[in-house]
Design goal:
Length: 206
Amino acid sequence: MKPYYILLLSIFSTTAALAQAPTEGTLLVATPEMRDPRFSETVILLLRYESDSVFGVAINRPTWVEPSTAFPNMEFLQRYRGNLYFGGPMDRSNVLVLIRDPENQVLDTKPIFHDIYLSTDPELLRDIIGTESTDQNLRLYAGHASWDAGQLDREIAAGHWRVIPAHADLVFAQDPLKVWQQVLALGSEISVKLSFREPTIAATIP
């Protein structure tokens, strides 16, 4: 069994994972019922989930655009050896940064989850690129997705999103274009198995 499959299996191996509520640091997986073409086959990491502010970035939408081309005023981005991700349709002129920092040496702040941190500070980005110039532990996003109060909850209730726990190896997947298919397929497979074993719980799964 492939290590990546084992990772996905561990995420979906409990009914609690399948019934995950949306919070900061969880993943939204668009289901085939998603009607908004902007989010079709998209996986979003929630960066904030509060009554008056809900937003996140798409982690599986890499582009061919170099960050220095999209943000020419940040000349230091020319040292970065990774492409820009399309984070979402809102504020695409701004860059958001996700940093994987297991040693907690970069940011003196609360992580989004585990060892994953968020920053929108260009000066901090300049400093990080001085030591981390690839997308292995540093990813840049143009734009983000956001929802009005209660909007995301209604979309989840309608079955447009499945909520699962986040994992750093998913957020920083080596092949992000495959993340949606793998996560959704495995989640559906285990949902079917649970429907035979625990019909009461499975009936609550979107």
